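Hey, quick one: can you model this chain's 3D structure?
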Amino acid sequence: MPKLTDIEIAQRTEVRPIREIAASARIDETYLEQYGNDKAKVSLRFLEETKQPDGRLILVTAITPTPAGEGKTTTSIGLADGLSRIGKRAALALREPSLGPLFGIKGGAAGGGYAQVVPMEDINLHFTGDFHAITAANNLLAALTDNHIQQGNALNIDPRRIVWRRAMDMNDRQLRFITDGLGGKANGVPREDGFDITAASEVMAVFCMSSSLQDLKERLGRLVVAYTYDDRPVTAGDLKAAGAMAVLLKEALQPNLVQTLEGTPAFVHGGPFANIAHGCNSILATRMALKAGDYAVTEAGFGADLGAEKFLDIKCRTAGLTPAAVVIVASVRALKMHGGLDKKSLGTEDLAALERGIPNLLRHIRNIREVFGLPCVAAINRFPEDTDAEIALILKKCRELNVNAVLSTAYAEGGKGAEALAREVVRLTEEETPAFSCAYPLDTGIREKIETIAKRIYHAAKVHVVPEAAKELRRLEKLGFGGLPVCIAKTQYSFSDDPKKTGAPEDFSITVRHVRVSAGAGFIVAETGDIMTMPGLPKVPAAESIDIDADGRVTGLF
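Sure thing. Here's the predicted structure for all 558 residues.
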């Protein structure tokens, strides 16, 4: 019998009515706004009115990504199902996929194999329209900014210093840099402009960092859209845009409830990228998962140096969260790539390459334990071609750090394949007490925070801030933004800002090229290396394989 694709597995699964899933999560149906029978929005009133205590928060992160794959989302879903299988009440909180990568290079992003969230096609495509609402709110602010200039420019905005860009949820390199407002006086003021992908919009970050509708509105009002001729920031509040933007987002702000293939409740909500933003689902979804389960499993994007660092230093600090344990996902294949092995050779046992690559995993483990003070376990996402000798080597190296490594076969077996991981997570939460602390205090300068992350988390030898970025850094501190946490935009493929430096590089320098404030989201963004906020499509886009038949059956989403 031919192997089933992810989408075929999802389509053959009998999905339970969403009201049953809500009931299992202790959510009364009066809080639900259903989108058909298999997904629903959950009213924010649930958080205001529930008497349920918070469960234990489990963060799933990973080693530095490689083209071989690590399986972080699959492991997160499998772990939640595994917890359910061993008798624990569990819930998930995950990010929503972006259409850009889905039609570009990534394909589906709702887990894989027998560890998926469903309805898989809906989640990967338009879902409940959250991304469209965020795109609309972003572009409303752009339109109001240009209209204000057109109608007399009472705020004295310098058109050359508009920092707010337009957005769309699709990879389109053609729109990175554009010139608009052409065609004469009636058609606007000619200026340079551009588009970011929706996941990179600050509205997305605000959406995910907000704790209520009122908090959302206040954060939107703080968005910096431009600077005046005399160097003062102009905000969305100055443009009287925050109210209308909040109206567009009020339905989207309610977290989405779906389920795993095994019926575990899953809140899938918000989707900032972790290489150019903070890479976590919404605070509201995480809080709902904590109320819905005795264990709430959540995921941070890319490697632990990106998503996990931002989850811990930004999201946890803002929301007052403390993880009970951290799971670091790795695979033999990915570690061999970090050891210099070509992707075509990954199916052959190579202990030497593996030993060269394992330091990447060990560095992430040390960061979680020694910098953030959190208990952790390494989850080894096992592939069929992995040999016993390779697995034994990883287990040995982790034991030398007094950390357990546990095999996971969630892709092939669902929750059953993650039961051992679930038991280790439960053991960690019951036997070890977190001594959580952030990587840096907020009362240091912006440059000091950047250097602390670069040296403590990335293990860089030094940080070089180009003169233009240094000037902007001093300016932001003068404007009163110095007390904000820092969100570093960096390649996901390396601890360094050079994607070619795999493994656990030493004696490298991080170069900060741009610094800007995300005042609504509540952090400073420091851009390193060559970071693009609007991806392009590959030579053979995934879209070429996605199709639909006469009966409406979707194919090609993996």
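One thing worth noting: The first strand starts at residue 32 and ends at 34.
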